[in-house]
Amino acid sequence: MNKKVRRQRIRAIGYRLWAMGFTYRLSPIAYCLIFAFSILLFTGCASKQGEVKQPSGYFDILPQMTKSKKVIDNLDSKLFVSATYKSRPLREAYVDEYARRYQMDDSQRQSLQKMEKDLDERFNEFFMAVYTPDERWNDFNTPESIWKIYLEDEKGNRVSPVEIKKVDVNSPLIREFYPYLDLWSSGYIVRFPKYMIGGEEPFPGKDTAYFKLIITGVVASMELEWRLK
After folding, report:
1. pLDDT of the residue at 15
2. What value, to the nearest 5°, has the Cα angle with vertex 177 and ends 211 and 60?
């Protein structure tokens, strides 16, 4: 196995362990011990099995596009969120990984690629895992939700989502591609318009340095920021 493949797989292991730490609140010592054992186990198996197919890169890009934050007030948990921005590179890597897992032929792969490209051209899309201590608060997909969500750029331009869809947290597909989603959280697909009303340039624009996902409500508020430059 070449060094590049080994580094990529080690990063994938590290990200999965990070997801475990977020879910189960592992101590730093426990995290390090598990990580070291996983690396030893992985390198030992790799030397026996020989060359392993190079990963598509999805699990390398995923942590770069994922932001997490917790709101705790007076030792009370209020809101935990992990959100992934489905950027063009992440979508392309998803197509590669999905096609590999399902052994798609060229025609099937091209159909999936076209679907992801069409979605990317129409929406700024996020996958969001949300934990609230009271299940009634976890209502982002309802018309009467106690939360408001916005996407805002560095200039203060702001858009609201056009669709918020709740996903099945027990789906093996969802849990595999978003390993930070645990059974105590709800998962959502959140879509914002790619173009503002009357706008000719996409939002965020090509010169935008960063944008923020703003989640606000009477219970808690937070901002997650993605740097584009």
Report:
1. 52
2. 65
The domain that holds 199 is classified in CATH as 2.60.40
Distances in Å between the Cα of 11 and the Cα atoms of 39, 61, 63, 64, 153 are 10, 10, 10, 11, 30
Domain end (from 55, 72, 88): 55
The confidence score (pLDDT) of residue 205 equals 82
Token pair belonging to 99? 């096609």
Apex CA 172: angle with CA 169 and CA 178, to 5°?
65
Nearest to 1, CA basis, from 40, 49, 69, 56:
49
Residue ranges of the chain with per-residue pLDDT less than 70? 1-56
pTM over 0.85: no
Between CA 149 and CA 96 the distance in angstroms is: 31
| Buried/exposed 79-112: b ≥16 CB within 10 Å, e otherwise | bbbbbbbbbeebbbbbbbbbbeeeebeeeebeeb
Predicted local confidence at residue 139, as pLDDT = 98
Type of residue found at 92:
E
Strand partners, 190: 126, 164
> What local confidence, expressed as pLDDT, does residue 99 receive?
98
Number of domains in the chain: 2
Domain around 183: 56-227
